[in-house]
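ok posting inputs for the iron/sulfur cluster job
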Amino acid sequence: MQTVLFHSTIFGPIHSRRLGTSLGVNLSPADGKVCTFDCLYCEAGFNAQGPGRAGLPPREEVRRLLREKLAQMRRDGESLDVITFSGNGEPTVHPEFEGIIEDTIAARDEFFPGVKISVLSNSTQLHRPDVCRALERVDNNILKLDSAVESTMQALDRPTSPAFSIAKVLPQLERFAGTGIVQTMLTRGSHHGVPVDNTTDEEISALIEAYRRIRPREIMIYTIDRRTPEQSLERIPVEELRAAAERITAETGIPVQVSA
Ligand code: SF4
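and the output
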């Protein structure tokens, strides 16, 4: 079974296709996955692997490890573009997420002022005021919307809560109009014989309607980069991503970044 990618709380720096030289912060356990989605394409594997035994790293430990790493990088004269919250699961499910963002801003200002802070989130915790407050403070608040068609979102992202739906998340995403970034993973394939495809004209039309409503400052579209737990999923050719991006910008006026 495909399992987690990251075996520590702080990882990298790595070169990110979208963000540059990025120091990663993994708020999930170092030996398991904790996520409120179970995406067919998740590079950290399916949730079925379990949460492991290490538990979520406490706020104080994240603070200490991050400060140690930033201090060492500064001593060594290393360059850095961004501190990115991603890792083996959804960072905003951490109960101390808001405090961790506060600590990270303080550490960034002390060691690497000017470096951006990015959070890659699946948008499932936007009903929590503490999470929204924290996301409003970061430079790149990158929120997932893979499909605006309920059945496709359910098939591709497989939210763990039956309460999560497109109808609920869209108004929550609107809170970040003009500041948030929406990211959409485009792919197609099947799972247990059931086709999944968020690249059709109808899917892109539905996304355009949703983007118009949310009005993010930017949209990122990307496709599969590494091995996925559902191996039938296709990496979409860059020409197709670019064509989708052009259509989205033409119909929404919002800039679209393509990563392939
Ligand atoms: S939201 Fe991210 S971490 Fe969670 S299952 Fe999907 S790709 Fe994996």
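notes: The longest strand covers residues 10-16. The mean pLDDT is 96.
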